[in-house]
Design brief:
The chain has three helices and twelve strands, in the order αβββαβββββαββββ. 19% of the residues lie in helices and 27% in strands.
Amino acid sequence: MHAIRGLALVVAAGAAVVSLTACASAGAAPATGGAPSHTPVAVRPTGAGHAPAKKIIGPTGFGRLRLGMSEAEAKATGEITGWVLDGGAPACGHFEGKNANGFFRPGIGIVYLDPHEGSAARTPEGIDGRSTGAQVKAAYPSLHVGVNSSSANVPGHAGNRYGFTGITQAGPDGPAKRIVLFSDKDTCHN
């Protein structure tokens, strides 16, 4: 959708340049300061100045995928493009989706959702990848800043947590960068 909107913007801008160039090269405004031979038209490309719509991550899922969904439920959404049981102990698997990737545990379901880069994900509390450490801490007082990332409890949803990859002990001010959603039943990633 964003690619189509972007293409429309480029086409509209290109048409405006061609139109204005044609007027100028046809001598529409003589060098002597005479009146132009055409009526100027304002060009406003569709979608100009609008940021991409942000998709909500949390409190229980992202898009049509939800924490705890079984393989059958997740595949029924039409969002899953690959589902692989990795084996090992504890038994975990990973999936690839149209809008997010993640991990699952047999008998438990999806335990981790990682929206694709560029998805413009934000939490219901308004936290997105550009949010600072202070903004994340204000929204989530339970924020625990770790060595490689940070995490916070999802308000009103015991057992669900947000992860912020850009807020670390070495860089506690952020920005949040990437936001993930996971269950406390997740034993599939560190």
